[in-house]
Specification:
This protein has helices at residues 3-13, 62-80, 100-117, 167-176, 183-190, 196-204, 218-229, 244-247, 253-256; strands spanning 23-25, 33-34, 41-50, 83-94, 119-128, 133-142, 158-162, 210-213, 232-236, 264-268, 283-290, 294-297, 303-304. By secondary structure, it is an alpha+beta fold. Bound molecules: adenosine-5'-diphosphate and magnesium ion (MG). Adenosine-5'-diphosphate is lined by residues 7, 10, 27-30, 90, 92, 121, 123-126.
């Protein structure tokens, strides 16, 4: 497909955009024009998916690649507690080897999830490239001062995480070792589910003191929160909600802590912990914020080594 054919296809497939009351100028002009919803602040993120690092044309279906593109960005917005309407800008850097069928599959996945999550594709760009890369910018909205940041954790706060962690780490490692990733782990790596409702709940009810999504690994993302909040943390190894199938393998920290879990990691002041009742089934308490230092301990109080575990984007 030539560039303009592809843009025409995108215009057509994403035309359900057009009537959106906040989108004054949709795909087709030099820029998009958006009216912000009154009384809200804009929350913006951009994330990149690079073939071989974040997806595999061999092991992901094209539709999964498209869906993952949108979902990793939605996960960032979830971690801020942002709500819709969500607007997206899509950049495709495409090698010659990528077939039209694959491209259409990817766009189909993006389209499906745009409908599912209420995202409007407002524009983008297309370029040829040696490496297959997909970049997406996404915006959402918060009430003034309601964005959940990484910097609000205080000593004594309880630490929680949503869902389960670890499956993506092992799938990725198997892939990088040239093995076929185990199908149960692969499914989790290819199909993250952004925790938008929980993020909004935590933000709008002013429950969480800090929040981040788990994209670089639970230990590293915890460190992001402690460093930016100027506090420490103690995590409880035996309480980490490790993906059940992986848990049976008795995993070491490096088997679960590399990232791409796309869960929410958040802290809650002791007084507010009872407010979590409505989401109790979806979260696990995994530790406590301390004054300083970061450590992971097992049930017997013994230290579990987690130094240098986590995703480093440029090493
Ligand atoms: P320009 O040359 O002004 O950058 P383009 O020819 O690249 O414009 O794009 C034409 C229109 O198509 C623009 O509105 C742009 O936002 C949209 N567009 C291009 N690529 C994409 C894409 N991958 N996804 C969504 N919209 C796109
Ligand atoms: Mg352009």
């Amino acid at each position: 497909m030539k560039e303009f054919e592809l843009i025409d296809l995108i215009k057509k497939w994403f035309a359900f955009n057009k009537g959106h009351e906040n989108l004054i100028l949709p795909i087709g002009d030099d820029c998009s024009v958006i009216i912000p919803p009154k009384g809200f602040w804009e929350v913006t993120t951009v994330d990149s998916l690079v073939e071989g690092n974040h997806f595999s044309l061999r092991y992901f279906s094209p539709s999964e690649i498209g869906q993952k593109t949108l979902r990793v960005n939605l996960s960032d917005l979830a971690s801020m507690g942002a709500r819709g309407p969500y607007f997206a800008w899509l950049v495709l850097a495409i090698p010659k080897s990528v077939t039209d069928r694959t491209l259409k599959g990817i766009l189909g996945g993006i389209r499906r999830d745009c409908k599912r999550f209420g995202v409007t594709l407002a524009g983008g760009n297309i370029t040829s490239s040696n490496e297959f890369q997909i970049h997406l910018t996404l915006t959402g909205w918060v009430k003034p001062r309601q964005a959940l940041t990484r910097s609000g954790a205080r000593a004594g706060d309880a630490v929680f995480v949503t869902g389960t962690i670890g499956a993506s780490t092992l799938a990725y490692r198997q892939f990088k070792e040239g093995k076929t990733p185990d199908s149960r782990l692969l499914k989790r790596w290819a199909n993250p589910m952004p925790k938008l409702a929980i993020g909004r709940f935590l933000a709008e009810r002013k429950i969480a003191s800090a929040c981040s999504d788990v994209s670089d690994g639970i230990f590293q993302d915890m460190r992001h929160i402690t460093e930016q909040s100027g506090v420490g943390a103690e995590l409880w190894w035996d309480d980490l909600p490790i993906f059940p199938y992986l848990k049976k393998m008795n995993p070491t920290p490096s088997m679960i802590g590399f990232g791409e879990d796309y869960e929410l990691l958040f802290t809650v002041p002791p007084k507010k912990v009872s407010l979590l009742a409505p989401i109790n089934k979806e979260i696990t308490r995994i530790g406590t914020i301390t004054k300083n230092g970061f450590k992971v301990v097992d049930k017997s109080g013994k230290k579990v080594e987690v130094d240098n575990i986590g995703y480093i984007h440029i090493a």
